[in-house]
Design a protein that fits this description.
The complex is a heterotrimer of chains A (101), B (539) and C (674).
Chain A: H1 3-23, H2 27-52, H3 58-88
Helix pairs in contact in A: 1-2, 2-3
Chain B: H1 2-25, H2 31-55, E1 65-73, E2 78-84, H3 88-106, H4 116-135, H5 139-148, H6 150-160, E3 165-167, E4 174-176, H7 177-206, H8 217-226, H9 233-250, H10 259-266, H11 269-294, H12 296-322, H13 327-347, H14 351-382, H15 393-396, H16 398-411, H17 418-431, H18 439-467, H19 486-504, H20 507-524
Antiparallel strand pairs in B: 1-2, 3-4
Helix pairs in contact in B: 1-2, 1-4, 2-3, 2-4, 3-4, 3-11, 3-14, 3-19, 4-5, 4-6, 5-7, 6-7, 7-9, 7-10, 8-11, 9-11, 9-12, 10-11, 10-13, 11-13, 11-14, 12-13, 12-18, 13-14, 13-17, 13-18, 14-16, 14-17, 14-19, 14-20, 16-18, 17-18, 17-19
Chain C: H1 18-22, H2 25-41, H3 50-74, E1 78-88, E2 95-103, H4 105-128, H5 135-153, H6 158-176, H7 183-214, H8 219-228, H9 234-251, H10 260-263, H11 269-278, H12 283-290, H13 292-296, H14 303-320, H15 327-347, H16 351-379, H17 390-393, H18 395-409, H19 415-430, H20 433-458, H21 473-488, H22 500-506, H23 522-543, H24 550-554, H25 561-567, H26 571-644, H27 652-673
Antiparallel strand pairs in C: 1-2
Helix pairs in contact in C: 2-3, 2-5, 3-4, 4-5, 4-11, 4-16, 4-21, 4-22, 5-6, 6-7, 7-9, 9-12, 11-15, 11-16, 12-15, 14-15, 14-20, 14-26, 15-16, 15-19, 15-20, 16-18, 16-19, 16-21, 16-22, 18-20, 18-21, 19-20, 19-23, 20-23, 25-26
Amino acid sequence: MLLNQFLILAAFLFSLGVYGLLVRRNVVLVLLAVELMLNAVNINLIAFESVLRSSEAVGQVFSIFVITVAAAEVGIGLAIVLMIFRNRASANVDEFSLMRW
Amino acid sequence: MELFSQWGLTLVVFLPILGAVVMAAIPRARETAVKRLGLLVSAVTFLLSVGLLFNFDYGRASEYQFEMNRSWISAINANYHVGLDGISLPLLILSTFFVLLSVIYSWNHWEEPRNPKAFLILMLILATGMNGTFVALDLVLFFIFFELVLLPMYFMIGIWGDKTVRKIPGFARETETRLYAAIKFFLFTLFGSAFMLLGFLAVYFRSDVAGDRTFDIPELIRIASDTPEVFAGRFGWLVFGAMFLGFAVKVPMWPLHTWLPDAHTAAPTVGSVLLAAIMLKLGSYGFIRIALPILPEAAHDWAPAIAVLAVIGIIYGSLACLAQTDMKRLIAFSSVGHMGFVMLGISTLTDVGINASIIGMVAHGLITGLLFFLAGSMSHRYHTREMARLGGNQKLMPILGGIFAFTAFASLGLPGLAGFWGEFMSLLGAYNPAAGLSLTLFRTAMVLGAVGTVLTAGYMLYMLQKVNLGEPKAEWEGHHFHDVDRYELAAWVPLIVLIVAVGIYPRIVFGATTDAVVDLVRGAFPSTVTAALTTVVGG
Amino acid sequence: MSLLFSVAPDEIHFTDGGLLAQNAGVLLVLPFLAFLLIIFFGRRMKYLGAEFAIGAMALGWVYAVALLVLNITRGVAREVHFEIGRIGALGGEPLVFELGWVVDGLSTMMFVVVTTISLLVFIYAVGYMRGDVRVTWFFAALSLFAGSMLVLVGAPNLVQLIIGWEGVGLASYLLIGHYWEKKENSSAAMKAFYVNKVADIGLILGAVILGITVGTFRITEVLAAAEAGLAALGPVAVAAGLLVFFGAMGKSAQFPLHVWLPDAMAGPTPVSALMHAATMVTAGVYLVARMFPFYETLAADARGWILWIGAATLFITGLIALVQDDIKRVLAYSTVSQLGYMVAALGAGGYAAGLFHLWTHAFFKALLFLGAGSVIHAVHSNNMSDMGGLRQHMPVTYRTFVVGSLALAGIPPLAGFFSKDEILASFNHAGATTVLWLGVAAAFVTAFYTFRMVFLTFHGNYLGHGHPHESPRVMTGPLVALAVGAVAAGWVNIPGIYTGFHHWVEVREVFRPEAAPASFDLLALIPGVVAGVLGIVLAYLVFNPERPLQAQRDRLEIPLLYPLLRRKYFLDDLYWHGIVAPIKGPLARGVDWINTYVIDGIVNGAAGLSLALSRFVYRGLDQAGIDGLIGGISAAADATGSSLRRMQSGRVQQYATGFVVGALVLVLGIVVFR
């Protein structure tokens, strides 16, 4: 089986995502990094499903769920980013520290 | 009619919150529409409750009427069970009545930051919570309504409350009075209700001895009287203690009362009125509706402690009143004393005592509610509640002063006005408490309670002299004060009439309550003998 | 005429009084109706509402007199009850609250007293209060008082009695503090209310005990239970009796609870006449009389207390009147002293005697107060040192005042003579010799201070300002009417000739009538009259001589009196140094001192102490202790929170780093330690 290759790919993508999440300063890029991480998980789900072949196709169903949620999340996330950008003229994540004590 | 007797009660409970939802849809700027809707909703609710009053069968006052029992959360066997008996009827009417009067009074009395829409929405939610508590016959339902009351009041105090910044003992920073009071009020009550919920759950888990577990109050009372051993012993003692904490905070009983003066002082006028008139009664009502009949044996064990705390409350509250300089704070402390009489009545576990506590609740609601209206209107005009700065109010505003004097006398328990019956009957009950309770203790309590009435007269007259009598202070020279306006009169005159009516003809209340109370006592404390030791009368 | 009433005492018969008694509630309600009419329409009327008060009281007077006539001719004992609430039902019969009215000999007599005096005082007040700031309110409060008093007197049960009892207390507060702009007036009103409230504890607890033990608040049934010797009532009867009497001590200003009455003179004079002399203060006497069969049977042990409290009051307070300069205060102490007579009479078992004095005293003391009011109206001062020589200026007031004074001094054949004589006789009859001589001594004192007042006010030279003149007709009319009463009111009970009063007040449902005295008791009669005459004579000797300086005379300085006394067998000298000076000087002043410093001091000290205590409770216990504890707990939570909240920086990436590091640690942990 080609499982290992998929897992390595997914791990690579996930690490890329984590890196992006932690170090990028632009919010849009941070959001993209999150997307990367989600998709890495999707790859994992599909890969395992193709090996385990459960009767309800749980892996596929879950990955579709993830995609849907991701779409919603990006929608709301970008809306928030847009609002903040309008108010502050900046997309720098360091300036988004509104939600603190 | 059939429909009304089935749905009437539910309508009375939920109409206000429905009104609140509709009101939320009206734009904030359309103030008149908002106020009219508030008036309409509260008036219709009141009329519906009066409809219940007229359809109430006084011959069966000890049974639940207008009952509705639908399955609600079947997993835990919690039901939507509401009903009205002689004990809850006067309190429900009191509640709907006071909400209506508060809306009328509010018409042109708004505290900063105004916003009538938000204020009225909170008031209507509050109305649902209060009405619901008085008719709920299921512990879960009761708890939810009981807690529902907290939030609107929290916001009323926190947003429309007193904005003075002051130093609170024990705190490093200076705090706004309203914030401190609102948080204290919320936390105190929540602390109590946490234990109360614990008690409810304990009863629930014990109730499976006789079949399914249940939250149903009449069902639990039946279990308690059929198989008394189920809720007896150490278990009952602990559970009663837990419920006691919940209810006693709300009453409030000494020494759990310290939230009350702060909340009252800080709250906006209408908030104070509803707090004093209705919300304090939720606690004592809980004792009568839930704690006593479900846990009679534990109630018997706890009764001396309740009596002692009640009497301490009476004396202590009155003494504290004498030291006050702030008018609203004085009235708030007076509530501690008056509710002490209510709790003394309950602690006797007799029909006379419990009847005393109910009429005491009604009377305290009418009188102290009116007092807070008056105190609010005065501080609205003088912009201060400091009694040292007031004086000669009778001269500046004769009608307001007259009503104030009347209410003060009603509050000190003048016979012939509503407040007398509760105090007098508490003493009657305490002279001859339920069988097995210490006569020495309760008769001492009776004497101390009677001494308390003198102290009550003391601080009420002291307040009258400070505020109403004498010459007006120099700082008010040249000020023009408006005497009562018609909205105030519309809200107050019905209360005055009721205070006199209940004072002269207390059957207005007893007609509904006595049978229900007798039935309750007979079920819970069968060995109790009250009223007359003997009735041998010669001649 | 005497034949008509010469039935033997145990043969008292009575009827139910028919429609007149059945509807007697009208009498109780009328003044309240007047109260409401005055409140709502009074200001628009010509006499500012007085017409309502007087109209209602005139109707009430007619009704009361009709009841009295009915009682005299046929005997009436009738009770009407309305249930106003059933409050309990366990253990046998339901316990109920009721309102209603009782029409019997006792209440009828009181109805007549209350309505008569009220009517006359109301009419008088139209003149006295003309131009006052709050005439309308004054008449409203007076009507409220009259209504409450009638409710009290007509109460068939203890609960209604308490309602009326505190109702008159309220009216008293309102009227004493009528001029509430001045602090001392409102303080006097408060003092009256407090002292009464303290006493009311007794009445209320007594009612609680009786109500619960007997199972009803109806007085008749309580008395019947006492007569029947109800077993349950036995052990608590004396306690209940003493508690009820304690209540009576407050309203009737018995020593040591009398301190409020002199201060109550801060109210307008008609108020003093009506409430603090004739009617309200007699409520305690009425209460003891109403419960009299109870004190005769189960609570008989309480009687000794009643006798001795009354005796102490009549003697101690009478002395204080000697040193007062304020004319109303003289009368106030005199009232307290006379109330002592009534109470002591009841304590000695003289039921009719005590009530008879209540009856006559109402007339002549109201007369004296109204006369004093007339004088005050003329000279605008309460102090006798601002008066003097008013005899020429105010002839009607003077004559009626002297009539009242003679009646008070107990000079035959005026009203006070007969009633005081019967009280002294009742002391003698009960074998209370000490009390009898106390009573005689007080009779002497009474006559002395009364005529001191007469001489200082009406004789000598005028010392005040302006030109005093006789009061208008509307004021002198009631004076004349009351003077007639002060003369004739005693003629309804002359031993051996006509003893109708005994029958009036003994027509009651549960009552053992006593035999009316067949003749005067000479052992009581002679000392009483002699004491009265001696008192007047002594007052005449000391105070009458026309002298240029009234102030000298008032100080009772000896120079002018001394030589005279010396020259006359040194007898007067002996009186002066042996009796008058010690009484007026150290003794009276000592009593006044005790009154002011000890008793009043205890009252004031208790107030101060409770203030200090409350301050301590509030600041020390409540704010610092309990509230501090609560505050401390929340402060601790607050401190923990503020140190932890720094972690929340609001930087998403910081949080994310935390997640990642945490996840890594978890994974590593699982891998390593599995």
